[in-house]
Amino acid sequence: MSVTEIKKGIYWVGAVDWNLRSFHGETFSTHKGTTYNSYLIVDDQVTLVDGVYTPFAEEQIKKIVEIIGGRAIDYFIVNHIEIDHSGSFPTIMNKYPQAKVYCTRNAKLGLEKYFHEQWDNEWDINIVKSGDRINLGRLSLEFLEAPMLHWPDSMFTYIKEVKLLLPNDAFGQHLASNKLFDDENDIKMLLAEAAKYYANILNPFGKLVLNKLAEIQKLGWEIDMIAPSHGIIWRQGVGEIIAAYQKWAQGEVKNKAVIAYDTMWESTAMLAHALLDGLTDEGIEARLYQVPKTDENDLITEIRDAKAVLIGSSTIHNDILPTLSPLLDELVSLKLGDRLFFAFGSQGWAGGAIKTIEKKLTEAGMKPLGESLSVKWRPTPEELDQAREMGRKIAKEILNQ
Ligand code: FEO
What we know:
It contains twelve helices and 22 strands. It is of the alpha/beta class.
């Protein structure tokens, strides 16, 4: 995609990674690719905000040169040092060694360590703190540290003259598009991708998100455009994405249940479907997933806005099926605990799966919805009726809480 002027004198000089299908190693599915957004401000001082992922470094340089020709970059703002944004740092610095770099203290430490093999002690690295400002001529930059949103080095950059917020990962989505702005894309799809990003990356930091939003409000920053480092730029939907972040960060959930299970010989699957029937009888929104056949990040996104999670497993070796372990671990590490849970499953001569599910979900901070349901071998019609009745009870609990 070619350079695009997003505001007068401010250009998108990022890269679109159309074929990326997993991010953070193999831990985050990116069905629609992603972008590494970077912005070039042409003023009395030429300023680059953020780099791109390493394989796109030369492409970024080409875009910069297309705009400024033989002029140099004066300032290089590093909002975040994760490699998808700092990968092009050494390439940029080798081309523009006189550029003054501005970043947080943690970012400086991280850059030195990441790039120790290429490091040049002549590079001019400057530490900034919240409230620090830089004058560019017509425009100015103000910085706001945002530690753990989502790394210790993260910060936001704000340009008050044009009401533009450059928050790096925050408000982003893993989405490749040849349309740069929200109003040129399907807003529902954008919010769904932003929700997936939030659930799988930012969910553990909900309190920090709320504090940061409150801080921005207190600062009186007027924002009519948010240009994150992934996905599209918000200009029509600024209020919508901020409201969505408020809602997600407050842990708002719907009267909805997610049934996630795995099964060896369909007995646990029969229980899962009977529970679904009971929830459906009471009109509760419910989704059913066999875990190993389901994308884990999509499942986490479903669970993020569900009030109840019903987890089922056959017992093997006195424990859960190992296919369920990553999901249970993620529920703990992503702090998705403020929910109700129900454990179920089938066992042969000895149980164990239910105990592990209960232990893990209690560790996640979830509260049990009554006594777990365990059946031996194949569920009888009576046991399936019992599961259906349990589904109805769970539905009522969901409505009552
Ligand atoms: Fe998009 Fe935290 O890097």
